[in-house]
Protein 1
Amino acid sequence: MERLEVRELVYFTAVAEELHFGRAAARLEMTQPPLSRAIQQLERRLGVALLERGSRRVALTEAGAVLLRESRTVLDAASAAARRTRRASRADPRLVLVIKPGGDGGLLPAILDAYQAEPGALPVELVCSFGEREILLREGRADAALLHRPHPDLTGLDTQDLLAETQLLVVPSSHRLAGRTRVCLNDLAGETLPRWPGAPGGGSHGPEVHDLGQLLHLIALRRMVAVLPSSIRDQLRDDLVAVPVDDAEPTTLVLAWPEHATSPALAAFVRAAAAVAGEATGHGG
Amino acid sequence: MERLEVRELVYFTAVAEELHFGRAAARLEMTQPPLSRAIQQLERRLGVALLERGSRRVALTEAGAVLLRESRTVLDAASAAARRTRRASRADPRLVLVIKPGGDGGLLPAILDAYQAEPGALPVELVCSFGEREILLREGRADAALLHRPHPDLTGLDTQDLLAETQLLVVPSSHRLAGRTRVCLNDLAGETLPRWPGAPGGGSHGPEVHDLGQLLHLIALRRMVAVLPSSIRDQLRDDLVAVPVDDAEPTTLVLAWPEHATSPALAAFVRAAAAVAGEATGHGG
DNA sequence: TGCGGCGATACCGTGCGGGTATGGAAAGAC
DNA sequence: GTCTTTCCATACCCGCACGGTATCGCCGCA
């Protein structure tokens, strides 16, 4: 069985994405002829036609589309491998946890305390990021992340549910819905909703928002409204009001980490988080 | 960022598994010096020590252990990529479904019929295999598999539940438990249970069993007993008896396929299977 | 102190990955 | 129709990196 090399996959994805040998070569900072030959050789070794060369356009074959998708997973795995290896060799081991600012459901302090009490606990480094936080896990840049389900893509990750939350509509005090005791999603017709960086802008084409302070500021300025998990209630400014949304699907705060992870530090962290979450839901409701 | 090459990962896994450069080189069908240099270069490029060379033994460092695990996933992904690409280019497209003989819960004929009625259905090729059936999915050798949950490792696979089944103890008619109307797991103390190839022989160190006929034969010969999903009831020989096991965790027949799969033929098959399963549980209970 | 095992080093050849120059086919422009 | 442009393939060349052989150096051991 012929072996597939990373270099070939990099070349192929470039061509498959550009559908143009010249541009792909430029992107790869090389010239076009060796690129053409590399792709030909790849096709010969696989015994498969990957591209249809029309004299004026290049198109993917069925098999080429499959290889494009597969290549991405291989390349992602390869760069994650490099990053995780490097991180494992650091002199100051630490657990990198990526969160959305304000998106911890109020559980984080208790979780961190519980974790530090575990034997062999590492210092925890918090990384704040909006949108695409799971990417950091897949890329091997972080050990764990706090996400909200339903979430676009949790495949390849293991998860632990922490907290089920209802959702609140956040509006300025002067907003037409501010006085309501409850609203439903239909009431939001015509409102501008924020667009998270990286999220496929499904319908809501409001401005991109990069952190919670910015978002609340924009809401106060009447530029938009937002539907957020109920735990942000503590962090609202005085000039904003939160109203329960009846028919918004409830959201679950989950702790996620790359599957196959074996680090005992991570395992301890997951244990700690699960314990804290169990207490919270068991006692407090 | 330096790129990690497949060749290097192959070399490294060989050394990491053998913990011996000479043997690793032999396994790779090359000589020892270039292998040593390749590993050194890998370490230099990563900036990480992967191996501790004692003059008489080689050991993995912490980072080396991480890279070994990561390498396996990269290499698996790479060979799966090659196989899936080749399969996608076949002139006679077909859907490869891997099953455990007798493990289809009786649903398979209906599923196949429903699938063939879907638009764009492909011929279905059935592959029978005991143990490690999910490996065939990960390797890109099959499109879908029928498995039973709880299952050792479903990560990296998407699944669709098909049928919840209670478990039955299968024994010869002359067995001491054959007359019971129900048993519990404690009753099985001292009995020999089959060991599936590939499964970590957890406690039960009986003989390895490779197909259902063989298993039933061995049970009839009083060499072992087995706990199996209730749908095998139809396939029992006259000289065997099935007794419900009260406290065995119920098992779920699931259809599994590689995550990120995009083939419309597979999607149609999943739809068909889900429809049949819905009917079965909806009407029949 | 000689021996054997094993990884590292020195040195060498060749094949492959990359470059430049050019060919050749197809799609407009007129 | 033919001239031009565009873009992929081919021809040919070069340097290096990969793999091989020979050997060293270190250490455990008898």
Protein 2
Amino acid sequence: MNEITSLERRPDGGPGPIRRTALHDTLVSHLRDMIIEGDLLPGTRLHEGQLGEQLGVSRTPLREAIKYLASEGLVELVPSRGAVVKRFSAKDVHDMLTVLQTLEELAGKLACEAASDAGIAEVRALHDEMVQRYKAGDRLQYYKLNQQIHSAIVQLAANAALADMHAVLQTRLKRIRFIGHEGPEKWAAAVSEHEEMVVALEARNKAKLSEVLGRHLMNAWERVRDAV
Amino acid sequence: MNEITSLERRPDGGPGPIRRTALHDTLVSHLRDMIIEGDLLPGTRLHEGQLGEQLGVSRTPLREAIKYLASEGLVELVPSRGAVVKRFSAKDVHDMLTVLQTLEELAGKLACEAASDAGIAEVRALHDEMVQRYKAGDRLQYYKLNQQIHSAIVQLAANAALADMHAVLQTRLKRIRFIGHEGPEKWAAAVSEHEEMVVALEARNKAKLSEVLGRHLMNAWERVRDAV
DNA sequence: CTTTTGTATTCTGTATGCAGCATTTTCTGT
DNA sequence: ACAGAAAATGCTGCATACAGAATACAAAAG
């Protein structure tokens, strides 16, 4: 079941303008997911003919999607030899986390200034939900909510450029973090850091929030360093 | 003279593997330049037929290039209505400068740790050249060297992710800064800041370099705020 | 047996053709 | 004369077709 056509139209016949997504756009999301979830491993060549047939799509929109992902940094374009899924070294991952850390520190500062109370409440809600998942041992949902919280804080900063850069790096790292399974004690530490984060945000304590976010990502490196 | 074919082969017959650039790749650079230099103003629709004919290229590689630029954030894709050159609000520009500031502060720190003496010397050379252009009143060359210096410092940080993010933002801002003409006194101040930067780098003074880079971009906002 | 060269196949890169959507123009009714 | 509808035009989105490059394979030479 990898046909792409099923994704083209929304399943519900709900109101509002019917979704009119372009195929290349759908393909971008689809391929991105395939890369993140490991269906396409690093170093894999993206075979236009084969991949297109597998997804039930012609080469043209597929190529367009690949170009888009290339600019995003998920695939690499080799002249006359197509595209391959980009492989990240340990240093690459460390570099990305370093930049992400800086960006989130900035996001923390800005969020404390710009966030609405409602926005902060949403983060709190996400966090509480995440803690529930943690206690239930549901790693996948925990992981997703974790990412959502970080994205939400960045959103609160109300800085489009920051959100862009953060999203790109987060996407590039998803594949890694998806794999990086941490032990119970480190997991607990991560949850504890998150609690600190939300408290600092609610107090609109810029310095504190920024510090915790930075520390959190330093520790993230510890957690994934073995996986790469 | 807008034919694209002339750019396909390298002019020199130098050694090494002959350049074999794909057309869509060439188009990305070409369109990017057209946007930055104002040949394509914000809000302009990128007409596939017309633009392709003008450049002597068929629609397929052109469309691929546009998708790439869309991911880079220079153009916006409107479903069923093609692509338009993205328009940036004053807030957008301010947001971008804020992020750029943070990134360059980080770059400064890392560069002081990781840079080779030779690398630092190159920045010094660029700076001296820039000062010459400044004294000669050659705004265009000054501007280009200015950008080169910032890029060079980021390169010295030896962090690929940082370089990526920096390049994207710098590209998005080029169009703005290209326009933003500053008065003589502000121009002098900018040059003076650059001098401080290079001195701090040569001394490998992390805190100082970081501070000057940050201040420099704060001032950059002052210089361009009227232009947007 | 190894190396090299010629050939065949496969895949990318580019062009073109066709269908559907958006927009504009024209026609018709009031 | 004006408003609304219908037709016509132009453009995008996707598929297909064709040309050229890269690789794999096989045969021949050392």
